[in-house]
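If you are new to this repository, start here. Below is one unmodified record pulled from the training split, so you can see the exact layout before writing a loader.
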Amino acid sequence: MALNNPAFNNPAFQDPKAVQSYPGGAQAGNLGAQTQFATAQQTATDAAAQAQLEGMYAAPAAGAVETGRMSYEDTIWKTVGLFAVLLVFAAVGWVWTMAGVTALNPQPSVLPWVLGALGGFILSMVVIFTSRKKIRPALIFGYAAFEGLFVGAISAFFEYIYHGIVLQATLATLAVVGVTLALFASGKIRASKRATKVFLIAMVGYLVFSLVNIMLMLFNVPIAGGAFGMLSAKGPFGIPWGILIGVFVVIMAAYSLVLDFDNIQQGVRNGAPRQYGWLGGFGIMVTVVWLYIEILRILAIARNN
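And here is the target side for that same chain:
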């Protein structure tokens, strides 16, 4: 069920035989079988092998490096590394955006914002469309760098207008991610085929709405009023549509995280090659950045209102 995040639209996270179907997977899959065969043969022919076998059982469990397979721990460390790169370049984007702000030129620079967005989009497409043949960690790290530049730049821009908004958005994002992960780990929330279909329909509808809203804003159509276009318009009880729609989108992003966690779980169970941990970290990063931007926009609309 990788309908939500194209990063997980890969048989490695869905095909139970992925360990035999992907580069390096067959070797990882045969490792356990070869070890068992050798141990059984030695046990049958040599009494001394019994003591060796007991020592193997007493030793720590093999990790991702030893087995060559995807594991939760290895995927977590890869994800942490990607977010570390994102944070470093977010700081660069923040400083770059605010570097030219003076009394004579009070406008923050949008260049790092645009550069990060375009670079991140291009690299994300390359990663997604080439991942079926080969996982390239360098491209994923490049995406993290450009995405960090974008996140830092847009955060500095919003912070310049609405003081304190970045801290609020960051805490809210961490809260949503933490609660979603806790609920998934406890088994209280799981992805389902019906919910995923509804999510896909809602996601397509939201993308179409966003594109239409952007076009109306670019051409200055009267229906798109305010800094956020149609999202600035008043809805029920005087609440801007941006807040109402934004809450729904945050719920979608949280469910997208559930699907991301579920796909990683399936990858580990399927015995996917260890390199697919990079793809798992990439997918989580895409969703978390989307969640943060949506929360940032909700807070900005509320503050602007």
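Two things worth knowing about this chain: The chain has two domains: 21-59, 60-304. Confidence is low (pLDDT under 50) at residues 31-40.
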